[in-house]
Amino acid sequence: MRILILNWRDIKNPKAGGAEVVTHEIAKRWVQWGHEVTLFTAGFPGAIPEEEFEGVRIIRRGEQYSVHYEAFRYYRRYLEGRLDVVIDEINTIPFLTPLYVKEKKVAFFHQLAREVWLYESKFPMNVIGYVSEPLYLKVYRNIPTVVVSESTRQDLLRLGFRRVHVVHDGIDVTPLAEVPPPVEKANEPTVLYVGRVVPSKRVTDIVEAVGLVRKDVPNVRLWVVGDGKAHYMANLRHQVERYKLDGHLRFWGKVSLEKKLELMKQAHVLALASVREGWGLVVIEANAMGTPAVVYNVHGLRDSVHHGETGLICAENRPRALAQALVSLLKDESQRTRLAQSALQWSRKFTWDRTADEFLAISKMAAGDT
Questions:
Q1: What is the DSSP string of 337-363?
Q2: Which Gene Ontology terms cover its molecular function (predicted)?
Q3: Where are the extended beta strands (E) located within the chain?
Q4: What is the CATH number of the domain that holds 156?
Q5: Same domain for 146 and 207?
Q6: Residue ranges making up the domain that contains 99
Q7: Average pLDDT in the 319-346 region?
Q8: Is it the case that residue 47 has pLDDT exceeding 60?
Q9: Closest-CA residue to 276 (of 357, 167, 200)
Q10: Cα-Cα end-to-end distance for the chain
Q11: Which contiguous run of DSSP H or E holds residue 125?
């Protein structure tokens, strides 16, 4: 098939995140399987306007907030009538392809923005975004839609979507053969956070929770892996002082995949307190390294963690509840080992080949090639 993917960023964009990893892993496999894949995306400083990367043709036009209009112009001039299916990825601002693309279409959601608007944007844009999202998504209700979690599927069904399919993300790592023995873990009880350090991830909640954990586990450590906005990093450092965590917290910044996996393997538990996630890819990665997760009960995270089996879901989305769950795992090695073993087994289900194959089947149905 001739496939066009519309996304606001590509894998080489300095701001690329999990959505771009998912897109590229799927696209390059489709090329390997004999399909022609073009990715239309925004440019960035130093970007090449057009290139081929691992078989995927990448076309870059405009910037983050103009790429949607540039996609419309480029399609009308060069691509109309020459495609079998168009994959429209919705990352906050939609491409609105149902209004102008004549070929068959598939909508692709990693997550809805919803509460993220309230944490990541300033007034009045945060309120405008929060209120308007259900309205502008109505144009997608009648086309096949792919999401990465059941939580997002339920969100869209409530908005009137009719054909919503769940296709879970794969992982870039090979799960360990067995859970690492205690000797391979960090010397001190260690909680790990991996992800962007931004308000919607509520890393400050994790810092506060670890401050509370110290009352029961005095030698607890927190590792924060990832980078983010300067003002939010400043808030974190203020939290460190407030909860007297000097010497108990280490900022690793952005690290390589190999280093990330090493830290996941050494940590005793992963902690996440996001407002919402599409799926929780980092949870499965940690599981593959034999490390269970403790998470807030939010979209995506409640899908990637099976409570009491592969990790723990907090009773409340508050630092105190997170602290209680962390203490229960850090002080109970037998429970932690049991969860780690189940989590490792759970992680083996997620491969990029499976993700790409399931998504391709939906795209073929949409294009009428059954």
A1: HHHHHHHHHHHTT--HHHHHHHHHHHH
A2: glycosyltransferase activity
A3: 2-6, 36-41, 50-53, 56-60, 85-90, 104-109, 145-147, 164-166, 190-194, 221-225, 249-253, 269-272, 293-295, 311-313
A4: 3.40.50.2000
A5: no
A6: 2-170+351-367
A7: 97
A8: yes
A9: 200
A10: 12
A11: helix 125-136
Instruction: Write the Ramachandran bin of 280: left for phi over 0, alpha for psi from -120 to 50, otherwise beta.
Output: left
Buried b (16+ CB within 10 A) or exposed e, 314-340: beebebebbbbbbbebbeeeeebeebb
- The SS3 assignment for 313 reads strand
Strand order in the sheet with 164-166: 50-53, 56-60, 36-41, 2-6, 85-90, 104-109, 145-147, 164-166
For residue range 70-87, list pLDDT tens digits in order: 999 999 999 999 999 999
On whether both 135 and 186 belong to a single domain, the answer is: no
Residue located via tokens 């300067």: 230
Residue 368 burial (C-beta neighbours within 10 Å; 0-12, 13-18, 19+): exposed
Q: Partners of 131 in the beta sheet? A: none
Residue 43 and residue 152 in one domain: yes
Per-residue model confidence (pLDDT) at position 196: 87
In contact, 10 and 41? CB cutoff 8 Å: yes
